[in-house]
């Protein structure tokens, strides 16, 4: 099965992608993970990508497309995959459709995680990251009263791309560049939207229910 997850920043795509990919026994392909690995490794791509990521902007299409095409071409993706973070705009979606057609395949489903703007800002601006172990805590959801990681004692800090002004900018970028994907995939008759608010487990149940007809 070949699936794409779409939704605004903070919709929970990364979390749901892990559960869904595990359920379907397909690889989760996340551009965000690839970008962050390059940033932490100090690669040339990472240095270039960081400039865009810190501002909440999108990494240029040509870099992203080439990277995703190579990843989808690997052996473990032959029987299916789940894309998280790609495509982010209609030109990327059109390019994805073309190179899948070259391999005589297509997407089975695009799953939209629907969440309102206020909830996105609350989710992202409240996140704090440990500078030692990398665990992410939330000032509301984890009832944190200090800036110390309960796991390792490291210092908690707010990532640049989680600051409220950057989150608001990311939402504007999403509305301008990514939201048109909803109409694009609706026209392709492969779009299904689910409510992404509430406990993670409930959202996962909704996602798996949406996938059930394709598993028969």
UniProtKB/TrEMBL annotation:
Residues 30-59 are annotated as: NMP. Its EC number is 2.7.4.3. It holds the Pfam family ADK. Residues 127-161 form the Adenylate kinase active site lid domain. The keyword ATP-binding applies. It is an enzyme of class 2 (transferase). Its main location: cytoplasm. Gene3D superfamilies: P-loop containing nucleotide triphosphate hydrolases. Pathway: Purine metabolism; AMP biosynthesis via salvage pathway; AMP from ADP: step 1/1. GO terms for cellular component: cytoplasm. It catalyses: AMP + ATP = 2 ADP. Zn(2+) binds at residues 130, 133, 149, 152. CDD domains: ADK. InterPro entries: Adenyl_kin_sub, Adenylat/UMP-CMP_kin, Adenylat_kinase_CS, Adenylate_kinase_lid-dom, P-loop_NTPase. GO terms for molecular function: AMP kinase activity; ATP binding; zinc ion binding. It is found in: Cytoplasm. Catalyzes the reversible transfer of the terminal phosphate group between ATP and AMP. Plays an important role in cellular energy homeostasis and in adenine nucleotide metabolism. PANTHER family: NUCLEOTIDE KINASE. Belongs to the adenylate kinase family. Monomer. Consists of three domains, a large central CORE domain and two small peripheral domains, NMPbind and LID, which undergo movements during catalysis. The LID domain closes over the site of phosphoryl transfer upon ATP binding. Assembling and dissambling the active center during each catalytic cycle provides an effective means to prevent ATP hydrolysis. Some bacteria have evolved a zinc-coordinating structure that stabilizes the LID domain. This is Adenylate kinase. The lineage of its organism: Bacteria, Bacillati, Actinomycetota, Actinomycetes, Streptosporangiales.
């Amino acid at each position: 099965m070949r699936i794409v997850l779409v939704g605004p920043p903070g919709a929970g795509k990364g979390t749901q992608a892990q559960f869904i990919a595990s359920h379907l026994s397909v690889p989760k392909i996340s551009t965000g993970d690839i970008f962050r690995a390059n940033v932490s490794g100090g690669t040339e791509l990472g240095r270039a990508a960081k400039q865009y990521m810190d501002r909440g902007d999108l990494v240029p299409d040509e870099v992203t497309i080439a990277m995703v095409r190579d990843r989808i071409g690997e052996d473990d993706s032959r029987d299916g995959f789940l894309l998280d973070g790609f495509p982010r705009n209609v030109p990327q979606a059109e390019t994805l459709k073309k190179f899948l057609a070259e391999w005589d395949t297509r997407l089975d489903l695009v799953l939209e995680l629907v969440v309102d703007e206020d909830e996105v800002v609350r989710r992202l601006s409240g996140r704090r990251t440990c500078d030692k172990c990398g665990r992410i805590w939330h000032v509301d959801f984890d009832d944190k009263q200090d800036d110390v990681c309960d796991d390792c004692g490291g210092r908690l800090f707010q990532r640049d791309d989680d600051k409220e002004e950057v989150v608001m900018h990311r939402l504007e970028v999403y509305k301008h560049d990514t939201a048109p994907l909803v109409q694009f995939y609706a026209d392709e008759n492969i779009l299904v939207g689910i409510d992404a608010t509430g406990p993670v487990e409930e959202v996962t149940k909704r996602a798996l229910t949406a996938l059930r007809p394709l598993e028969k």
